[in-house]
Amino acid sequence: MFNSVMERQRAGRLGAGVWLSIGVHAAVFVAVLFISARPPPPAPEPDPFEGRPWVVPMSPAAPQGTPAPAQPKQAVKPRTRRDTAPRQVQALPAEPLPAEPDATSSLTDEQAASSDDGATGHPAGSTDCPPVDGPIGVTDVLMDQLVSSYSQTEELHPFGPGMTPPVMLGGQPIAYTPGALAAGVEGTLVAKCTITVDGQVKDCRVIKGLPHMNEAVLESLHSRRYRPVTYQGRPVSVSYSFTVKLKLPR
């Protein structure tokens, strides 16, 4: 009895498994039929440019042949500047620099003095402007005649080329001062003065001085009279540099 019950249960289990297997196979079969019944996907459209050669546009080539050479440009001739020169140019002398001891345009006086008794001596050297021999009265007459014969002008010019050098007509000699004698002063003194159209010397100033001798030299220069400096045939007032050499007697 027990065996019959067990076999019934086994038969029931076997029947359920068979039906389950059949259902699974049927589902698989239906799925296969469904998949196979679907229409195939459409084929891709062919590329219209596939298999065709690519055409690259080319720029037009330059025309062959030798180009004509460019014509050279003609050089522009520089225009000649024509300046009208004045018919007559009156050159004025340039301002001279202070004269050196050896300058030819300066007057040189060598002053000698007696060292024994301290008395003032007289010039003992050569000068570029020697005084005119003769009495002072004759010198004054000659000076008046020269002044009256020239056309006078008061314009001051620096002494320069083209001018006649002044000629000394007279004046007080340079005298050593006691202080200069005691100190044994020697050397060169440079002074700048104005020589007027009538030969007078004025407005002197010392450019290069010496101890104890500046005032004495200026006093002597102011006392001098000169033949006027002329330029283009006319007497003119000039600014003139005097170089005075002072030397003690040996």
Order of helices and strands: HEHEEHEEHEEE
Apparent shape = rod-shaped
- If helices are DSSP runs of H or I spanning 4 or more residues, what is the number of helices? 4
How much of the polypeptide forms β-strand, as a percent range?
A: 15-25%
SSE diagram, text form:
Elements: H1 2-37, E1 110-111, H2 136-149, E2 156-158, E3 167-170, H3 178-183, E4 187-195, E5 201-208, H4 214-222, E6 225-227, E7 229-231, E8 234-246
Parallel strand pairs: 1-8, 2-8
Antiparallel strand pairs: 3-6, 4-5, 4-8, 7-8
Organism: Pyxidicoccus fallax
Biased composition (Low complexity): 61-77
Region (Disordered): 42-137
Task: Describe the structure in your own words.
The protein has about 250 residues and is an alpha/beta fold. Among the domains are: about 1-30; about 110-245, 2-Layer Sandwich (TolA/TonB C-terminal domain). Helix content is about 25%, strand content about 20%. It has four helices and eight strands. The strands form two sheets. Strands 1, 2, 4, 5, 7 and 8 form a six-stranded mixed β-sheet that branches. It has a two-stranded antiparallel sheet with strand order 3-6. The chain is rod-shaped. The relative contact order is 0.16. InterPro entries: TonB_C. This is Energy transducer TonB. One of its GO terms (biological process) is transmembrane transport. It comes from Pyxidicoccus fallax. Keywords: Membrane, Transmembrane, Transmembrane helix.
